[in-house]
Amino acid sequence: xxxxxxxxxxxxxxxxxxxxxxxxxxxxxxxxxxxxxxxxxxxxxxxxxxxxxxxxxxxxxxxxxxxxxxxxxxxxxxxxxxxxxxxxxxxxxxxxxxxxxxxxxxxxxxxxxxxxxxxxxxxxxxxxxxxxxxxxxxxxxxxxxxxxxxxxxxxxxxxxxxxxxxxxxxxxxxxxxxxxxxxxxxxxxxxxxxxxxxxxxxxxxxxxxxxxxxxxxxxxxxxxxxxxxxxxxxxxxxxxxxxxxxxxxx
Length: 250
Known about the structure:
The protein is an alpha/beta fold and 250 residues long. Helix content is 48%, strand content 16%.
């Protein structure tokens, strides 16, 4: 496991805590690998009845580490294959997923929430999807799920125009179930996970599978997104956007 992903099991709940606070929980290859292992392991463990994904105070996840994107955009590296495998791991997770979101949720830090079954957001949470502004496209099936969830126009504003959402707006659009004070995010998410874990697991699994539908169409859509994402990642627009971003940071 990555030192930046802490996985614990207690009373039927597997907690996957993203723990790289110095980088606002930006995700690296090793962190993706650790989360894939934790999700796949939850499927194989009958003792796990619910998965809880959490961050640290002030940061759920700042998304993919942009240095990986810059390497691919400039031709010095390939697209993060672990990131590509993380997306089907989310789709394939057969256990209910709860998320505890405090602070920033950027890129995959937001789009992964569309696969969760219950999301608790702190009043400090900010959800943003700056893909298009970086010369990329949204991923993780978000271009299919978000329009269904919030309608085309609002999804376009969020995913394409990149307008961020605060916690209240995210709740209104169906991304979050509950908005609480930041200090209460973990406790409320754990409360929801315990409630789910206490239910008959067979009934939960059957109901959840029927609600989510067959995963094949979503997986096919994610594959299509990933292909276009890879193409865009190597585009002149993306290269210019990432170089400008890192120039501003220097």
